[in-house]
Each structure stands twice: as C-alpha cells, then as structure tokens.
C-alpha cells in the first residue's frame, strides 16, 4: 500500500508566440525571475534533443524556451514553437485541459491595470468579492498579451476556500 501525500507544484509550461515579449511581460509586470535566458533547442542527437523527440515525436524541428520562477519558487517554462498557432478563442473552458493559471497579489486592481497597460486585457469588468461585505477576498480573470488566461487572487487559495461553500 502506497502513502498518499500532497505533492508540491514544480512548474508550468506556457506556449507564447513571441518569447522575448513574453519574458519582458512576465518579468516586468508579474515580477517573475528570469533563471535561464531564451535558448534555442534543435531536433538533433543530443540528450535534450532526444528528450524533446520523446515528448513531441519526430519532426518538431526547433523551438525557443526560457525559464522563469515565481516569488514562491514555482517554475514557469515559456515556449515559442516554430509552427506557433494562435487559437481564435483561447478561453474554451469547457474543454479538457488547463484553461487558466492564477497569481496572488494583495492589490488586484493595480496588477490588473498593469496587465492592461502592457497589452493584456480584462475578462471581467472589475474584480469581484467572494464574500461581499464579509471578507476582503477578491479575484479577476485576465488575459496576458498573448491570449493566455490568468486569474488574480487577493489572498491565498486556502483563505479563499476555507470559509466553505459559495453563497
């Protein structure tokens, strides 16, 4: 019988159409640390090339990647593939898969405006309160300048949900 315990979150990979612009956005707007400069990975007979062929299959050619880290040491891999396609609608939340990620900032409104000023957009008119008049927990859905969906929470995930069911 195996032990079940909560695993830590290591990293997330995000595809973007312009790696340099994405590194600039995520470091300057969200304050994430660049821990590995943008690098080109080529389909060839090297350990990294072979590993990528295992993942993507033969014929992937090349891509660019940069590695960042959040304030709580979660890794963020930014990928720019040569055959990059921007979907018409990147918010198909009803389909299986990850449809957003969330960052935490006590000043939800200020970060939302910074994202808009950097070319992103709000997916909601304004932040909403989880417990209006009762607790200061706020959230808003946003889009980065590349169409990726992100959410901003004012407080930790645990605090948002420890109060129980939605009212």
UniProtKB/TrEMBL annotation:
GO BP terms: L-methylmalonyl-CoA metabolic process
Pfam family, one: Glyoxalase
Domain VOC, first and last residues per copy: 8-155
Database matches in CDD domains: VOC_ShValD_like (cd16361)
Keyword Thylakoid: no
Superkingdom of the organism of origin: Bacteria
Keywords: Dioxygenase, Metal-binding, Oxidoreductase
Signal peptide: none
GO molecular function per UniProt: dioxygenase activity; metal ion binding; methylmalonyl-CoA epimerase activity
NCBIfam families xrefs: glyox_marine (TIGR03645)
Protein's name in the database: Glyoxalase/bleomycin resistance protein/dioxygenase
């Amino acid at each position: 019988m195996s032990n079940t315990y909560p695993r830590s979150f290591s990293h997330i990979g995000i595809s973007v159409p312009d790696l340099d612009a994405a590194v600039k956005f995520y470091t300057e707007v969200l304050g994430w640390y660049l821990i590995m400069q943008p690098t080109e990975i080529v389909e060839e007979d090297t350990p990294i090339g072979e590993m990528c062929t295992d993942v993507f299959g033969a014929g992937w050619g090349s891509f660019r990647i940069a590695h960042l880290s959040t304030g709580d040491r979660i890794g963020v891999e930014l990928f720019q593939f040569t055959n990059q396609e921007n979907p018409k609608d990147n918010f198909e939340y009803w389909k299986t898969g990850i449809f957003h990620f969330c960052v935490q900032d006590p000043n939800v409104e200020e970060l939302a405006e910074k994202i808009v000023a950097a070319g992103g957009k709000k997916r909601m008119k304004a932040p909403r309160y989880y417990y209006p008049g009762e607790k200061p927990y706020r959230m808003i859905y946003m889009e980065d300048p590349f169409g990726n969906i992100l959410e901003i929470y004012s407080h930790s995930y645990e605090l948002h949900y420890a109060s129980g069911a939605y009212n």
